[in-house]
Queue: 4 jobs
Job 1
Amino acid sequence: MTKLTTLADAVASIPSGSHVALSGFAIARCNMAFAREVIRQGIHRLTISQCVGAMDADLLVGAGAVERIIYGGGSLDRFGRLAWVNRGIEDGTLIAEEYSSLSVTFRYLAGSLGLPFIPIRSLTASDLAKRLQEQDASQIATITDPFTGDQWLALKPLLPDVSVVQVPLADAEGNAWIFGPRWDNAEQVRASKRTIVIAEEIVPTEIIRREPERTVIPGLLVSHVVHLPFGAHPTSVYRCYDYDAEHIKAYVQATETRESFRAYLDRYVYGVNDHWEYLERVGGMKRLSALRADALLGY
């Protein structure tokens, strides 16, 4: 059964106040077209979770769509900080639960396995654990190993309402492949109530069945499939296209003040009707073709 739909319809299925898990990592495989559509539709009060905070999260926070972020730190890689995430934490307008990236993945893993909690060593005696206990003692606890008597930190599962995953390839049923790093995506989608897949390319299910072991996201977990070439622009999708350094630099400059960021939103989010108009505004096929991945290197 086909689950193909438009980006607008997929985003409209997410009510304000939802917990959305994002698949991106810094400036790689970010849900950028998704984030722009969320902003255009005025969806707000979101909780977002992400193993490593990325450009999509920063854009959503800067536009006022996010109330809470659960993440393991993050950046725009060599281009700098997550300006709006950091600013929101500093001025108190954004509620932040800061973990290590591994412990966020463990929380998704607990959710994917249906566990009430999961023990972990990586936060033991860390400032992160201390800060989490001070911030909200209900999110972190200690348990005694019944076999050895050792003390362990224990974390609650993460159970997002919806996971949004940017992938290079999927079929109309939502069976999706991910080339290169998968990070926490497999655990993320299994912990979520449902998943929206945004794919660079849609292929027949017969292609998927030829190599079923490559399927990271099974269609049974997916509610919507969106075919959206360059949906991660200006970030990268391995084996599809590289990141757009010029545009990311322009974004970083735009985050310096509220006024310059509003101008960025007016030009690239509110000033276009949809993703296709956005692609024309950033340079069209001439610019996008220059970002196409090298067939050998994959970026």
Job 2
Amino acid sequence: MKAKKRVFRFIFMTLLLGMIFILGTGSVAGVFAQEYPTRPIDMIISMAPGAAADIGARLIAKAAEPFLGKEIVPINKVGGGGAIAAGLVAKAKPDGYTILSTVTATLTNVPHMESLTYSLDDFIPVFEHGYLTPVFIVKADSPYKTMKDVVEAARKKPGTINFGVPGAGTSPDIAGRMIADQEKVDMAIVPLGGSAPSITALLGGHVAVAGVSTPAAIPQIKAGKVRALATIGAKRADGLADTPTLVEQGYPNIKLDELYIIVVPKGTPRAIVDKLENALRKGWAAEGEYKKTAKATYMYPTNPLSGAKLAEWLKEQSTINGEIIKKAKLGK
């Protein structure tokens, strides 16, 4: 009997100590979250300086700073369609001081195409700060008026048509590969590290076609330097109402929209995630340079996704785009 009492006492004390530990660590985490942030926050940006995703990230960071009380420091880490930046943040300490600003393709497309050190499950989605419908453009003096014109040129002279795209796994990259596969033509897809470098390469005559973000393309179109061939989303893009989609041009399966999002490493305390989301949402709503520029460049989300809704959208897109990549034999 005494032995049984000792066993029960041991079990009781073990459970009691476990509860005290859990409650204690929870209190510590809660206090830590209340104090957060106590120093500047590093925001790793997956796209090149000057890209629409980069501009939007820097502006939303500035807009959110007054509501956080600390600076958000933008740091560009370009490469692999955002994979380099995402890999760094996935391994970062989940304390809210290293966050990732990227395009959704980095998390929903690229992992289906390459063997990476991260997956969608390694992140907690926080906030959508922009959206884009990518567009294929050519120089203003190009003979190509439609995507079919580009395909016919590639058919007549295999290997002579180069597509410049922001990165591997981005929507323009997948769309270009799908067109080449559907049409059975030889076209080189060249990842260039962002929309800005892609436009530079196009204007310099290094690529025949560039797939870029709408905000990056519109100023060049208005200046008469480039011409839009087709948008890549499910519907025509805001600001490019006269430009038909790829669906309208005979590619019914190519409907690839993207969002600009901010995520944090898995394991980041919920209280910290909520603080970040709250500051970003207040920055989104505030009157200032972010809202002004985002609206002027057609990337301001009228009802931004965040938290669980953003996580659900990302999972759906990962499944849908994963099937597209697999069917087109673009995957790993």
Job 3
Amino acid sequence: MYREKVVIGEGTEYPLNGLLTIPDGTAGPYPAVVMVHGSGASNMDEKVIKLTPFKDLADGLAAHGIASIRYDKRTFVHGRKMMKANAAGMTVREETIEDALLALAILRSDKRIDSDRLFLLGHSMGAMLAPRIDAEGGDVRGLIMMAGTPHRLEDIVIRQLKQSRGVNHLLGLVTAIESRYFIKRFNGLYELSDDEAKKKKFAGNISLYYFKEMGQKTAADYLLESNKPALIMQGGRDFQVLADDDFKMFRELLANRDNITYKLYPELNHAFVTAIYDDILKASKEYGVERHIGEDVIGDIAEFIHAQK
């Protein structure tokens, strides 16, 4: 394989460095994936302490003849600039969706890539957004959803606050009193007008409008309106998205869809590496030990992609 530097949004206000990974030793054009980050600001490898999920996936998929593009998340590079320009009204469209669409455009313009076999690979919140990205112009061949949820984002935040007194990507560690305060912020969210939601801060520079806009339709809503094949993947020891809730709910909601593939990995965590702890309060320790995504996960993704002719 070999890697080429690319710029997502070149010439725009928010250019992002990225890498296009191309398989070596096989004939193209290649199927390809765009990798969509989870919540929070992260680099192109989706680095979490000592874990690098997107790098693992890019290198592993290349060995199966699949190209990929990954890039720094917009908030990782331009977070302060974005907040200054549009703090109250920022949504996941500016944060994530626009750049995924730009990355797909790069792939479609590359003759080495099979433009009829493009896929979105979303992790965590990226999995929640992948069906929306497809619906809002992505128009990909299929979706790979890793550790996603059919719930709204605020429901996951509330659950994590209750689980841990506040450990989650948006807030970090907060006290029990602060946790109850943040949970109450969501009361009556969908009764607020857009302007009212933009004026109410949730935490830092994030307004309640961020959640209201995203919560109008869930990943499951988009999937139910679509006929695109999807691979839904879940770690059995994930303490951020739960196998017995989120994964189970996807299976129930999409029970009538015969083009949805489900994969559960009993011993893997949220980053799809072997779990060590089963406690969200030990998240920093969990992600602080270097491990890499295994061939079982990468092979299942590759098999799904190659099956979509």
Job 4
Amino acid sequence: MQDLRQTAVTLPPAVCPGDLIGVAALSGCVDPQRLEAGVEALRQLGFRLRLASNVSYRCGMFAGTDAERLRGFHDLAADPEVAAIVFARGGHGVLRLLPDIDWALLARRPRAYVGYSDLTPFLLQVVARLRCVAFHGPMVAADLARGLTALEEQSFIGALAGDWPKGVPLSWVSPGEMRQGPLLGGCLTLLTAVLGTPFAVDFRQAILFLEDLNEAPYRFDRMLTQLRLSGSLTDLNAVIAGHLTADDSVDPEADRACDKVSEESPQAERLRQLLAEQSCHFGGSWAWGLQAGHARPNLTLPLGMWAQLDPATRSLRLGPV
């Protein structure tokens, strides 16, 4: 199990309009209309684009064979002009590729990597292996294709440029003192999927962010329990819940964020209760309502950056104290 506390994590070089962004596809096959819409959205934001060679490929459920997906990604990573790589979509596929990613190649050119969902293990490996902040944020044929809200656009552009808000509001924070540590985490399903592998990480002294799509309360509780029993949550400083949906009508393969998440539904209340019950096993500090994940708004979060969970202001503060 990898320990993410070894050395300081740095921000990748700033990315601004006019820079070249690569669009990679390591996971599911990409809908061409959504891809076109997302690419146009990035162009409207002022970026130049270079698409991975496999972005339009289809091999079963994947955007090409394993070799084709890796080659398309590595070609982008080897291009010194590519200032950032934003992933086309999630779905499934990254786990198959993790052992064969050329981390030495990625280390030669620090850059921003942006994605979420199936990209969660990859992003955490960027933090662990490259000691560089990775971004849990919008994907091209998903969020960008459906159109970013003004808040999402501001968050995305600001993150790439290294410009952070003083505090990100939360719906609820458990009483107590401020908790701080590196912000880590992502999609709960993918965090449990790597347990027992060389790509599992522990989150000691971290602030762990969790989000997921279409998970019934019993599955949510089972995954939290599995993480706890594995030792992944030992000495955790806090847990923050992002968007958590339990709506069976949502198609997880669509990679389209839900329009909204109701925090008043009985299912949402049950998820809150389960998180509160589990919190006694990892220090008792937890929060709810971080606006990130498989729903609008999906704010861009800097994984690996130092953060503070502040009960007094009910916010997540990013950057050094």
